């Protein structure tokens, strides 16, 4: 692939400008000159407005006052909001987006929620693509692996190739990409929750080294000490977002007729860690050390229960 720098002619609008959108923009700028605007509802809140405006400035994007203003002249919309807000985000721009606008929905949402958003976008004349983000966006940025599906994927493929993104086409059906992500997350996020429950208990009892050594024997090559630290760090840093995703996974498994009790329990465990608010205790940079993090969880739960 020719990776010479070029100028991207399309105007890109990000509705929602959290970690994922910011990471993509940061990555795109290493490849192309891109014209990006953004709107995030956090700018409507006095407590979070200044921080979000700083995020815009850091990534060189133009912030807008409303979602309607954001999409008025956009060629491409990237929806990167919370899962529960995916359909509402589509609804907020449907009346103002131009016919033919390419709408990339990167939210970690249930397939049924993606189809609901797609119905809103296509009714407004837009071209909707289901995008599933299959790994953390840091440090890989725009090279984070994606799955895409939907009837308008040809346009998305062309754009993603020009922006040097990493993607795989799943099918021409909206929801198929997200189904893969949701079902996979039963395992990926579920293992995190199991590790948290087991290792926190093990640290409390002073038996963590025995537990981890036993796991290394049963599942060789996993390096469970390092993995436990990493997984606890992910939960402390992103537990709230993971809990939300797992509620979408539960919805997906229920709609598939399989049932999602494991996913629901994972959401509860992830949320339990998130609700402790430990990220601030580590000044936003929790260590990948299972003992430090487990003890912090134990101390915070004890303080909460006083």
Largest sheet: 8 strands, mixed
CATH architecture identity of the largest domain: 3-Layer(aba) Sandwich
Terminus-to-terminus distance? 60 Å
Residue-averaged pLDDT, rounded?
95
What order do the SSEs take from the amino end to the carboxyl end, as H and E? EHEHEHEHEHEEHEHHHHHH
| CATH homology-level superfamily of the largest domain | NAD(P)-binding Rossmann-like Domain
Query: Within the CATH hierarchy, at the fold level, what is the topology of the largest domain?
Result: Rossmann fold
Which strand order do you get reading across the main beta sheet? Answer: 3-2-1-4-5-6-7-8
Query: How large, in whole angstroms, is the Cα Rg?
Result: 20 Å
Question: Strand fraction band?
Answer: 5-15%
CATH class of the largest domain: Alpha Beta
* Total individual domains: 2
Q: What's the tally of helices?
A: 12
Count of DSSP E strands?
A: 8
Shape: globular
Structural class: alpha/beta
Q: What percent of the residues sit in helical stretches (DSSP H or I)?
A: 40-55%
The residue ranges in which pLDDT falls below 50 over 5 or more consecutive positions are: none
How do the strands and helices of this protein lay out in sequence?
Layout: E1 6-15, H1 19-28, E2 32-39, H2 46-59, E3 62-63, H3 67-71, E4 76-79, H4 86-94, E5 102-105, H5 111-123, E6 127-133, E7 146-149, H6 153-162, E8 167-171, H7 176-205, H8 208-218, H9 224-255, H10 261-274, H11 278-281, H12 290-304
């Amino acid at each position: 692939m020719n990776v010479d720098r070029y100028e991207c002619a399309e105007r890109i609008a990000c509705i929602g400008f959290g970690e994922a959108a910011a990471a993509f923009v940061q990555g795109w700028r290493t490849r192309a000159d891109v014209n990006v605007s953004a709107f995030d509802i956090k700018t409507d809140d006095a407590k979070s407005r200044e921080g979000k405006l700083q995020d815009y400035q850091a990534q060189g994007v133009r912030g807008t006052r409303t979602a309607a203003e954001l999409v008025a002249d956009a060629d491409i919309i990237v929806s990167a909001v919370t899962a529960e807000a995916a359909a509402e985000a589509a609804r907020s721009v449907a009346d103002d987006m131009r016919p033919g606008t390419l709408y990339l929905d990167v939210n970690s949402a249930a397939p049924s929620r993606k189809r609901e958003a797609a119905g809103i976008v296509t009714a407004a004349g837009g071209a909707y693509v289901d995008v599933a983000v299959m790994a953390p966006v840091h440090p890989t940025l725009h090279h984070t692996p994606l799955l895409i599906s939907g009837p308008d994927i040809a346009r998305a493929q062309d754009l993603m190739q020009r922006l040097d993104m990493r993607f795989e086409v799943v099918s021409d059906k909206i929801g198929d990409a997200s189904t893969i992500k949701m079902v996979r997350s039963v395992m990926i996020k579920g293992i995190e929750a199991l590790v948290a429950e087991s290792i926190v208990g093990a640290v409390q009892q002073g038996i963590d080294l025995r537990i981890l050594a036993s796991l290394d024997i049963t599942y060789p090559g996993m390096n469970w000490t390092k993995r436990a630290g990493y997984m606890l760090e992910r939960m402390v840093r992103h537990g709230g977002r993971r809990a939300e995703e797992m509620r979408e996974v539960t919805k997906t498994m229920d709609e598939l007729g399989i049932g999602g009790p494991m996913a629901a329990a994972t959401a509860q465990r992830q949320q339990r860690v998130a609700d402790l608010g430990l990220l601030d205790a580590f000044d936003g940079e929790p260590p990948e050390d299972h003992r430090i993090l487990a003890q912090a969880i134990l101390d915070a739960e004890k303080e909460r229960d006083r």
